[in-house]
Design a protein that fits this description.
Largest sheet: none
Number of strands: 0
Shape: globular
Structural class: mainly alpha
Distance between the termini: 13 Å
Number of helices: 13
Helix content: 55-70%
Radius of gyration: 20 Å
Strand content: under 5%
């Protein structure tokens, strides 16, 4: 399955399309031909400890008092559900709640506000617990186990796309000061922990040090995306003070849709 926003990037140019399909075919062949090997038990014990800790930390966030309200207010979730970009409704049934959301609007909303929580939250706590087992270092595990390195590499990209400075602007959309500070504190603390542990695993001093082209691509796009986030926050503040069916609200909603599309294109992610 290819997401809509990457189709043109991967297939609009014949040579790039050929290269991309060659990479996909190469990965499938290599995975299919790989011999089964028995991995050390210590690796599984290490990762199990990490998995349990990560799940606990993630659950503590989404089950925190007021989290659902924070999520609805600190992201353009309501506006995203009005976009006609998916083949299925944004929620499974009933009211718009976290536990009724489908995966795409859940990830999409977090990416729009640049917090990108689903891409990394809980990993820092998990890696910390894994390292504390003392069976194998994170760096050794990263270089010896392809599965583990793939998990870290994907999380590293998500962390690199995260901008908590921009995300903090969206917290101002949450009227309850105690709620926004409490939830955002959980997010920012786990972010710092995760960055530190991911760098420990990769042995690098900065995110995406091993993928300079990707890092440069993100750094070059951000200056164009950031203003759209500032504009989106301003528009969200305005629209939330208007009557649901007012003409001005419809005009503002159209403008918000434009910012959503622009941020998605710049971040190359819709969920």
């Amino acid at each position: 399955t290819e997401q809509g926003e990457v189709i043109a990037e991967r297939y609009a140019n014949r040579q790039i399309a050929y290269r991309h399909l060659s990479q996909v075919l190469n990965a499938v062949i290599r995975a299919s031909m790989r011999a089964e090997e028995e991995l050390p038990r210590s690796w599984f014990e290490t990762l199990t400890a990490g998995s349990d800790a990560a799940r606990t930390t993630y659950s503590q966030l989404i089950n925190a008092d007021g989290f659902g309200e924070y999520f609805r207010q600190a992201t353009p979730l309501e506006e995203i559900t009005r976009l006609t970009i998916g083949s299925r409704p944004a929620r499974r049934s009933g009211e718009l709640r976290v536990d009724s959301l489908r995966a795409i609007p859940w990830v999409f909303a977090w990416m729009q506000c640049r917090a990108n929580v689903p891409g990394w939250y809980g990993l820092g706590s998990g890696l910390s617990a894994a390292a504390s087992k003392g069976l194998i270092s994170l760096n050794e595990l990263y270089h010896e186990w392809n599965f583990f390195s793939a998990v870290i590499d994907n999380a590293e990209m998500a962390l690199a796309k995260t901008d908590l400075g921009i995300a903090s602007l969206y917290t101002e959309l949450v009227p309850d000061r105690e709620l926004r500070e409490r939830i955002f504190s959980m997010v920012s603390s786990e972010y710092e922990r995760t960055v530190a542990l991911v760098l420990q695993a990769t042995g690098s001093t900065r995110l995406l040090a091993g993928s300079p082209e990707l890092r440069l691509s993100i750094e070059r796009r951000n200056p164009y995306v950031d203003p759209l986030n500032y504009l989106q926050v301003e528009l969200l503040q305005r629209i939330r003070g208007l009557e649901p069916e007012s003409e001005q609200r419809q005009d503002l909603l159209a403008a918000i849709f434009q910012t959503i599309n622009g941020i998605a294109a710049g971040m190359k992610n819709t969920g």
